[in-house]
Amino acid sequence: MESSRIRFGIIGCATIARKVSRAILLSSNATISAVASRSLANAQHFLSANGLPASVRAHGSYEAMVDDASVDAVYVPLPTGLHVRWAVAAAERGKHVLLEKPAAACLSDLDRILEACRSNGVQFMDGSMWLHHPRTERMKEILAAHDFGPLKMIHCSSTFSATPNFLQNNIRVKHDLDSLRALGDLGWYCVGAILWAVDDQLPDTVTALPSLHLNQSGVILACAAAFHWTDHDMIATFHCSFLSNFSMDLSVHGTNASLQVKDLAIPYQESSATFDFTCGAKFADLHIGWSRKPEEVVVQTDLPQEALMIEEFSRIVGNIKNSNCRPDSKWPEVTRKTQMMVDAVKSSIELGFTPVDL
């Protein structure tokens, strides 16, 4: 029923908001009530350009959105530097918060957001869409199987070759709007994927690697880091960059098996996604090949991952709204640990690539 759907307001008309507005329309338990921009004309243009229903209201300020009593939850795709102000304002007015990644410029900023959500009893979730794809659950099942063996090494990359215009003008290279730059925009996926693979167990040390690329203003365009779990004798590495060819790779290696995915953050197709799984492989006789090839695992889905994210968020919000349930603590905890790791990488860079203990 339409009346039972969670009513979303979108704060900001960023490009990613087009994708998420479509996801809301595709979902079974959410609807768009309003869109806000810094001007009414911009909001109205977003409505028409994206074919949103005539019932969706346009607001000419973010203040008007957080004051809109007919909105249950807000999706916030604003630049990272604006997240604290508007996520806190929304939470204080009883609105649930779906916040685009990176969630905050630093852990102290994120904690202000999470405390506002906690104290006002509203749900928080960041916009890491890939976590909601059924492929992600299937990969976790394989990692947890006894024949995979203890994890020993993980590597993740998230890169694209940015245009000169992007490197000069995009908000992701503007220090006042997004101080984390490539580390936040792309590294967030890598750090999140590594934590996901190890069931969110923080490493003992984080060390940035001296493969850092900065622009003339000191903005991070590419960086890498290594993580170490002492008790498990396990390491992980990642590389994120605005300067190299497109990649969204994740490789997870246990003592007896390996898992690889090439399109982690955004699958090649909306309706299905794949990954490779290899168990017990070794060289064939005379080292002329392998004893077995990777098995391709195919996972089908009826909805794109962003719509599944909206449905999961709306399900939780609906339970809070209609059944007096408490917010799900899983999602803010996942975000907070990711932010801790990102902050540690940044600290290691600033300390001359020395290890940072967690």
From TrEMBL:
SUPFAM superfamilies per record: Glyceraldehyde-3-phosphate dehydrogenase-like, C-terminal domain, NAD(P)-binding Rossmann-fold domains
GO MF, one example: nucleotide binding
Residues in Gfo/Idh/MocA-like oxidoreductase N-terminal domain copies: 6-125
Ranges for domain GFO/IDH/MocA-like oxidoreductase: 137-259
Source superkingdom: Eukaryota
UniProt record similarity statement: Belongs to the Gfo/Idh/MocA family.
Protein name, per record: Oxidoreductase
Species assigned in the record: Iris pallida (Sweet iris)
